[in-house]
C-alpha cells in the first residue's frame, strides 16, 4: 500500500515538469511513510512513497526496474495471488530477486502485457514505463478500491494517487461545474469526474496506454450484473458464499507486518472476523464506541463477537469532543470536497488501529452487493401495488410537515416515509437518482450562481441508462458503481491512508462479487428483510443477538456542533455574506435561507447540506486562497 505519482512528457515543454516530481512525491508522505524514492529519464518520471507490507526489505522498494533496466514500475495496492503468478512465471524461466508482489506484477506485465489484468486478484493502481518504446501503461482495479487521478494536455500526462500530488506540478485551477453540482447532490464526486477541470479519475476496471503521443483508455472488466441469475436456491447460495468468502478472507491475511480487523458489531464485519479467526489465533479486532450517543453505539454487539471468537479486542470509546477535535484534520486531508461526515469516525478508528497494526480487514462492500440499505427495502416496496403504499403516498403532505431527523428512531422513520412517498410518484430512473441523492436539481439551482450552474450532466445521464427493468440486482449494480465507488471506498481509502493504515475488503474479491450477482434477488432481500443469504449463511456461527438488532449507520452530531462548537466557524466560512458574495459561487439569499432552516424547529437534513458547504469552503480556502 503506497502513494504513486509520475509524468510522461510529450515534448520539451512537458519535460520541464520533471523538476516537480520530487515535490509531488513528497505530498504523498502519509500514504507511504516508510520509504521515498523517485526515478526519471528525459521522457518520464516516477515517484513512490512506500508503506511496507510484503517483503519489507529494500529489495521491495520502488520505483522498481527489471534486470534489463527497460521496464520501471510504481504500484499502489496488493496482489493476493502473487505467489501463484510467481510460480507460473518461474516455470516459464523468470528469475526473481525479491519476495515482493511488485516484482511479480512487473514480470507478469512484461510476459503478458495488458492481458495480465484479468489474472490479478487484488486491489491496485499502477504505472509501468517501457523505456525502450517510450510508452506508459496505467491501470486501476476492478472496483476502484485504490485511487488514480490524471491530467493530460498537449505537453504532458500527469498521474497520482491523490490530487494534492498533481497540484505540485503547477496545474491551472478551475472548478468543474458538473462535479460541483454532483457534490451538492450526492455529497461526493463520482469518477471519472474530479472537482477540477482537466483532472479525471481513471475509471475502475480500466487501463490507459500512452505511446507515440496518443492516449488510449480501455475497459478490462465488466460489472457482472445479470438479468437472469442462475443461482436460485438458498441452500446452494449459502454454501457457495461460505466457501468463496472464506477463500477471499484467507487470501487477505498475507502480510509481513501486524494485521487485524475492524469489528463494528454488524453482520458484515462480524462475518469477516469469524472467518479470519479460523486462520489467525487471537486475531486483533478494533471497534469504536460513542459515549455521548448510545443510539449509535454498537460496542456491545462487537464485544459479543469478540468473545465468541476469542479475539484480542480493542474498543476506542469516543465522546463528541473527540470527534470534534479531528474535524480540521479530516477536512484538511481530503483533496476535493467530500461530504460524508462518517469519514470522521473512520479517521479516528484508523488512527487508533494504526497504533497496533499496519493492515486491517473490513466489511465494506457487503451492503452494495448483498443489499444492506434501507433504500433497497424501499425500492422493493415501491415496485408493489398495495393499500399500504397508497396510504403512505397519500399522506405525503403530513410527512412533509412532521419533524425529520436521522438521529432518533421516530424522526428517522418519518424521514423515510416522506422519501418513500415522494419516490412513489417517479419513473424508475428518477426514483433511483432521488434515493441516491440528498438534494435535488431545483435546490442546487437556487444555491449556485449562474456561472457555476450546468445543464450538462453526462455522468448522471450515462449512469441512469443502466436502469432498464428496475429489479433489485440492477439497483445493486448501480449502487456498486455509484455509492460504493464514489463514497464508501474513497472514504475508507482516504481516512486509512491519512494514518498509514492499509484496509483490505474481502467482500470485493472478484469471485465474491461474481457469485453475489449470480444469485436471484429473492436470496438477497425482500420488502421485509435484507442481506438474507449473508445472514442465513452465518446464522449458526454468529451470536444470535446480532440478528435481533436494527441496522443503522452512525450520524456525526453535526446539528449540535453547528449550534454550538462550530457555530463560529460557520459564521466565518459559510454564513459570511461578504466572503460569499466576493467568492461569487453561491447565491447569498439561498445561503441565508439555509441558515434560517438550520436553526429552525425542523431543520430536517439541512445539516448535511451545511456540512457540504463547510467542507467545500475549507477545501476552496486551501486550493484557491493559499
Mean pLDDT: 91
**Distance N to C terminus:** 30 Å
Helix/strand structural class: alpha+beta
Tally of structural domains: 3
* Rg measurement, Å: 24 Å
And the CATH topology of the largest domain?
Glutamine Phosphoribosylpyrophosphate, subunit 1, domain 1
Total strand count, please? 17
Q: Provide the helix percentage.
A: 40-55%
CATH class of the largest domain: Alpha Beta
Strand order of the main beta sheet, please? Answer: 2-3-1-9-8-10
EC number: 6.3.5.4
Family: Belongs to the asparagine synthetase family.
Domain Glutamine amidotransferase type-2: 2-213
Catalytic activity: L-aspartate + L-glutamine + ATP + H2O = L-asparagine + L-glutamate + AMP + diphosphate + H(+)
3D architecture notes:
The protein is of the alpha+beta class and 626 residues long. The protein has three domains: 218 residues, Aminohydrolase, N-terminal nucleophile (Ntn) domain (Glutamine Phosphoribosylpyrophosphate, subunit 1, domain 1), CATH 3.60.20.10; 197 residues, HUPs (Rossmann fold, 3-Layer(aba) Sandwich); 146 residues, no CATH class. Helices cover 43% and strands 15% of the residues. The strands form three sheets. It has a six-stranded antiparallel sheet. Strands 4-5-6-7-11-12 form a six-stranded antiparallel sheet, covered by helices on one side. The chain has a five-stranded parallel sheet with strand order 15-14-13-16-17, sandwiched between helices. The longest helix is centred in the C-terminal third of the chain and has 26 residues. The radius of gyration is 24 Å and the shape is globular. The two termini are 30 Å apart. The relative contact order is 0.12. The mean pLDDT is 91. InterPro entries: Asn_synth_AEB, Asn_synthase, ASN_synthetase/amidase, AsnB_N, GATase_2_dom, Ntn_hydrolases_N, Rossmann-like_a/b/a_fold. Its EC number is 6.3.5.4. GO terms for molecular function: asparagine synthase (glutamine-hydrolyzing) activity.
Amino acid at each position: 500500500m503506497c502513494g504513486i505519482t509520475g509524468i510522461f512528457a510529450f515534448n520539451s515543454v512537458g519535460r520541464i515538469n520533471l523538476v516537480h516530481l520530487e515535490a509531488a512525491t513528497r505530498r504523498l508522505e502519509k500514504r507511504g511513510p516508510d520509504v521515498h524514492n523517485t526515478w526519471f529519464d528525459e521522457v518520464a518520471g516516477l515517484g513512490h512513497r512506500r508503506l511496507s507490507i510484503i517483503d519489507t526489505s529494500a529489495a521491495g522498494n520502488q520505483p522498481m526496474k527489471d534486470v534489463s533496466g527497460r521496464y520501471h514500475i510504481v504500484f499502489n495496492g496488493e496482489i493476493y495471488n502473487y505467489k501463484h503468478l510467481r510460480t507460473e512465471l518461474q516455470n516459464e524461466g523468470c528469475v526473481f530477486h525479491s519476495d515482493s508482489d511488485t516484482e511479480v506484477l512487473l514480470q507478469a506485465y512484461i510476459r503478458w502485457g495488458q492481458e495480465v489484468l484479468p489474472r490479478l486478484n487484488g486491489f491496485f493502481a499502477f504505472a509501468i514505463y517501457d523505456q525502450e518504446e517510450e510508452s506508459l501503461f496505467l491501470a486501476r482495479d476492478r472496483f476502484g478500491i485504490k485511487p488514480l487521478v490524471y491530467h493530460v494536455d498537449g505537453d504532458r500526462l500527469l498521474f497520482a494517487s491523490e490530487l494534492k500530488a498533481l497540484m505540485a506540478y503547477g496545474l491551472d485551477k478551475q472548478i468543474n461545474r458538473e462535479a460541483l453540482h454532483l457534490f451538492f447532490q450526492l455529497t461526493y464526486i463520482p469518477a471519472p469526474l474530479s472537482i477540477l477541470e482537466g483532472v479525471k479519475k481513471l475509471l475502475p476496471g480500466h487501463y490507459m496506454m500512452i505511446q507515440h503521443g496518443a492516449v488510449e483508455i480501455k475497459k478490462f472488466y465488466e460489472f457482472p450484473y445479470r438479468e437472469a441469475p442462475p443461482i436460485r436456491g438458498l441452500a446452494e447460495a449459502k454454501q457457495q458464499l461460505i466457501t468463496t468468502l472464506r477463500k477471499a478472507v484467507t487470501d487477505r491475511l498475507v502480510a509481513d507486518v501486524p494485521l487485524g480487523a475492524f469489528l463494528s458489531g454488524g453482520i458484515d464485519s462480524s462475518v469477516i472476523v469469524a472467518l479470519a479467526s479460523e486462520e489467525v489465533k487471537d486475531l486483533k479486532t478494533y471497534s469504536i464506541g460513542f459515549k455521548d450517543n448510545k443510539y449509535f453505539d454498537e460496542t456491545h454487539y462487537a464485544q459479543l463477537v469478540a468473545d465468541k471468537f476469542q479475539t484480542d479486542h480493542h474498543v476506542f470509546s469516543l465522546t463528541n469532543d473527540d470527534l470534534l477535535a479531528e474535524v480540521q484534520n479530516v477536512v484538511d486531508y481530503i483533496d476535493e470536497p467530500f461530504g460524508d461526515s462518517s469519514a470522521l469516525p473512520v479517521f479516528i478508528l484508523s488512527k487508533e488501529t494504526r497504533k497496533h497494526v499496519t493492515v486491517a480487514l473490513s466489511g465494506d462492500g457487503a451492503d452494495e452487493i448483498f443489499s444492506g440499505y434501507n433504500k433497497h427495502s424501499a425500492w422493493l416496496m415501491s415496485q408493489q401495488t398495495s393499500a399500504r403504499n397508497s396510504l403512505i403516498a397519500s399522506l405525503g403532505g403530513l410527512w412533509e410537515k412532521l419533524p425529520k431527523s436521522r438521529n432518533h428512531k421516530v424522526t428517522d422513520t418519518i424521514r423515510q416515509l416522506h422519501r418513500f412517498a415522494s419516490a412513489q410518484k417517479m419513473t424508475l430512473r428518477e426514483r433511483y437518482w432521488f434515493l441516491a441523492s440528498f438534494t435535488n436539481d431545483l435546490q442546487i439551482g437556487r444555491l449556485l450562481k449562474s456561472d457555476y450552474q450546468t445543464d450538462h450532466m453526462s455522468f448522471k445521464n450515462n449512469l441512469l441508462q443502466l436502469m432498464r427493468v428496475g429489479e433489485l440486482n440492477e439497483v445493486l449494480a448501480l449502487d456498486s458503481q455509484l455509492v460504493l465507488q464514489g463514497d464508501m471506498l474513497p472514504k475508507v481509502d482516504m481516512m486509512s491512508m491519512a494514518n498509514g493504515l492499509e484496509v483490505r475488503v474481502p467482500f470485493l474479491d472478484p469471485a465474491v462479487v461474481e457469485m453475489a450477482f449470480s444469485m436471484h434477488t429473492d436470496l438477497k432481500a425482500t420488502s421485509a428483510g435484507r442481506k438474507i443469504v449473508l445472514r442465513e449463511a452465518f446464522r449458526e456461527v454468529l451470536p444470535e443477538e446480532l440478528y435481533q438488532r436494527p441496522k443503522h449507520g452512525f450520524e456525526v452530531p453535526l446539528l449540535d456542533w453547528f449550534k454550538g462548537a462550530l457555530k463560529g466557524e460557520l459564521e466565518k466560512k459559510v454564513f459570511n455574506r461578504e466572503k460569499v458574495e466576493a467568492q461569487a459561487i453561491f447565491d447569498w439569499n439561498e445561503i441565508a435561507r439555509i441558515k434560517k432552516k438550520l436553526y429552525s424547529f425542523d431543520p430536517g437534513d439541512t445539516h448535511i447540506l451545511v456540512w457540504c458547504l463547510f467542507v467545500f469552503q475549507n477545501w476552496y480556502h486551501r486550493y484557491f486562497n493559499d
